[in-house]
Amino acid sequence: METGEQKNSKKARVDPPVAPLVPCMVSIDKAKFQCPVCTHPLKPPIFQCAAGHLACGACHGQLADKERCYRCAQSGGYSRNFPLEDVVRSTRAMCPYVVFGCPSSVPLYEMGDHQPKCPHAPCRCPEPGCAFFGSPAWLSYHLRATHSWPVNIIDYGKACQLQLPASKPRCLLVAMEDGRVFVVSVGAHRAVSLVSLRANAAAGPHYTCKMSASGSAAAASGKVPNVSVEMEVPSSAVAGEAAATDTEAKVAAALVVPRKMLHGPSKELHLNVRIDKAQT
Fold first, then answer.
1. Nearest of 154, 176, 150 to residue 164 by alpha carbon
2. Residue 242: its pLDDT value, please?
3. What backbone phi and psi angles, to 5 degrees, belong to 257?
4. Quick one: pLDDT at residue 19?
5. Domain ranges of the chain
6. CA dihedral (125, 213, 216, 153) positive or negative
7. Predicted local distance difference test score (pLDDT) of residue 57
8. SS3 of 175, please?
9. What is the pLDDT of residue 226?
10. CB-based contact 238:117 (threshold 8 Å)
11. CB-hemisphere CA count at 13 Å for 148?
């Protein structure tokens, strides 16, 4: 029969403390984390035959004979490799764009999804002879500090007034809300383009804009000539270049301003620009 002291000692028993997780940096051959069937990164669920031959969940689902190993033909089917799944989940790598400011550390099997959407993917400077290469935020600072590009802080959904002389046909727009960088530039034949400065358009969000240009009031009628366009905003990894494809280029340079609408001896373009986040 248990005494009162024995009962109390049982009630007071506690589990031993769990050691905290301590991350460490190791070097591993990435090939060891690839499915031997499709060569894509292993992603849970992971299956193996009795001899240890692996298959990722997608490949296992497509096997014609799940009772016999695709490699060694051993019978007995497949079972889940839970220890390896835990290792795969906990094995993380820094984004390749860490040198450009990306702080993300993601599982190896998610890197293929992260990298094409990383907002820190580098862009290059468009100034002749300049080899600068960096994230959109770094390039924005570089263009301001090194090449004296004018900068305008904007709010989404609100119009911004711009005056671009022929001698300085480009400027940066930086969104107050999230620091996103846009470039307005005037090309040949006064074709005005607006692009989102980023290498990965898939990073999102996406934008629409309304641009308009106005001239001087006519002496006779007092009417102010105006041209405008509404469009989706394409992305570009090079500030001042319209876009990566012919289709995007046509969209980006959709506003062509007649010569008679330029202002003064400096041939200024007077623009009204409004950028909105596209509804998803």
1. 150
2. 44
3. -100, 125
4. 61
5. 31-90, 123-277
6. negative
7. 95
8. strand
9. 87
10. no
11. 2
Q: Which residue is it, tokens 């590009």?
A: 149
Euclidean distance between the first and final Cα of the chain, in Å? 70
Q: What pLDDT was estimated at residue 266?
A: 87
Homologous superfamily (CATH) of 31-90 is: Zinc/RING finger domain, C3HC4 (zinc finger) (3.30.40.10)
pLDDT score recorded for residue 203: 72
Q: What is the pLDDT of residue 279?
A: 74
User: Which amino acid, 243?
Assistant: A
CATH code of domain 123-277:
2.60.210
* pLDDT < 50 positions in the chain: 242-252
> Residue 112 is encoded by which pair of tokens?
């293929």
User: Can you point out the beta strands (E) in the chain?
Assistant: 46-48, 54-56, 79-80, 92-94, 105-107, 123-124, 133-134, 151-154, 160-164, 170-175, 181-186, 191-197, 207-214, 226-232, 235-236, 255-256, 269-277
State the DSSP string of 67-97: TB-TTT--BS--EE-HHHHHHHHH-EEE-GG
